[in-house]
Amino acid sequence: MLQMSTENEDRGPHWALKKVPTKRLLPNPTSVEVHEWVMPSCCFQHEQQFLRHGHLLRWMDVAACLSAEKHARVPCVTVSIDDIIFNSSVSVGHVVILKALVNRSFTSSLEVDVRVKSENPITGAQQDVCNALFVFVARPKDGSKVKLPPVAIETEEETKEHLLAGERRRKRVTYAKDLEQLLTNIQRFKITTTRRDSSADIKKISVSSTCVHTVQIVLPVHANHHGTTFGGQIMEWMTDIATISALRLCRAAVTLEGIQSVIFRGPSHVGERVSLKSSVNKVFSNNRFEVGVRVEGYDVGGEPRHINSAFYIFRADQGDLIIPEPVIESKVEEDRAGLALARHCLWLDRKAIQYDKSEVALNPENVYDLIYKSTSKLMTNYVRNYWEIVQTEQTFEFCKFQEKENLIVKVSDNLSGVTASVVYEKLANFKNRSKWDFLCKHIKVVKPVSEDDFVIHLVYKTLEHEAKELPKDFVLLASKRKTQGKNGETIYMLAFTSVTTEDLPPLRNYQRSTVLSSGYILEDSSLSPSSPSCKLTYVHQLGSSTMPFFARDLVGVSSLLQKLYLSLRAFIFS
Description:
Largest sheet: 11 strands, antiparallel
CATH superfamily of the domain at 8-17 and 367-572: START domain
Number of helices: 9
Oligomer: single chain
CATH topology of the domain at 8-17 and 367-572: Alpha-D-Glucose-1,6-Bisphosphate, Chain A, domain 4
CATH class of the domain at 8-17 and 367-572: Alpha Beta
Structural class: alpha+beta
Shape: globular
Distance between the termini: 6 Å
Radius of gyration: 27 Å
Helix content: 25-40%
CATH architecture of the domain at 8-17 and 367-572: 2-Layer Sandwich
């Protein structure tokens, strides 16, 4: 039976639309800020003296490590670094400002966000240089197991990053699968690894002529306080020899645009040798190319072991320069070129997904990037502040948020007598939608794309004021998630966004429409196990296709959304 509360006191502690602070009154306990003055010894020695990226990476690793250990209170080591895109160069004499803080701690690992700016100390002007996400793992000196405490979350930005850290962790695991799938397609369909601008006039160069091999001895100055080589020091050596390979290819000035995700497979120690090898893997269009670096460590007389690899994207500074074409002379070089093309496709896909506001074609290689975009959009909208109340009645509250071109609506309610997990299980069965959504004409799960993610086809009935138009249909990527909140509680989430797929092209009898971002968030709000209750929130970012369903409610001449919600509520308690 539908249970309705009439008094605010019965709505539970999570009823109120809380304003999450945008700023902390006190500094984040995990935050670290480091200032470094860029001296000539840190720079490339040519006409324009810019900070070497390897030097910057070392500073970033130190700042990230300080933040990780500040939270963990035990030694931490670098495990991986996500993709880094460099937005600007840093000139000699400028100050580099590095700000690091822990987004989230898991059982024994932490995600640390490092944001880098440069400042002209004379004018005070600042520029964004890059952002990076580091993953550290706690390693107590006695080798004991450790369970890290949760991160204290207060602000809107911290809440968003905490929730998204779980999705990013999931995405890191799938990267190798995405790459393998894309490489399979490249080989299957014989996608060419030849440049678009290639011609007989392009100078040919052997891959071996771009190779660089160097060996470093790990001295105490290169090691951290645990006796292992700084991850940032390894990255500095890697970046330096990658730049040498890039210069050998172009014989002209180059700029490092980015580094693709780096995974450290093992440590090296003081007294050991570190062997670094680099070469150009592939030249792309638009004067860009990839340099790969492999690092191995070994003791005197010992066998080398793989420490890590990284892949650098360079750009030739001279716009009209025609970069020589590396000649593939072996199967190994052919495989490297194929993998470089696959990585570059994923790199471009990620950038396109990040900035594209329309539907994106779903394929096996980009599915996890699309899932991350969908869940991150939902969580970003969910934690926003300053909602304007449009309509409120008993336990129902309808709000809107507008910022520039973004118009977002939110419905919140506290459901007494039911847990979040029970409501989640009902909503997560997508076929149940037709039982409560009286606008739903047809819903079908087209195919699963992972264990918790599906493509669904949804057809809506025509609204009365749109009687002359065709019914609207939506092809949606639906994601089911259970994640941990800031206080350790379970948060349940269902996220939806429009995609295109070859399995379901536009149909003649329907008007193909778009959902930018929508979904449900469920949190338990029980004061005691004997009186369960949960908070249910629905968030929807409006676009041209979905505006007609909400427009009249927003101006107060209709209560369609309220009727839909009351129908959903009745279904939950049925």
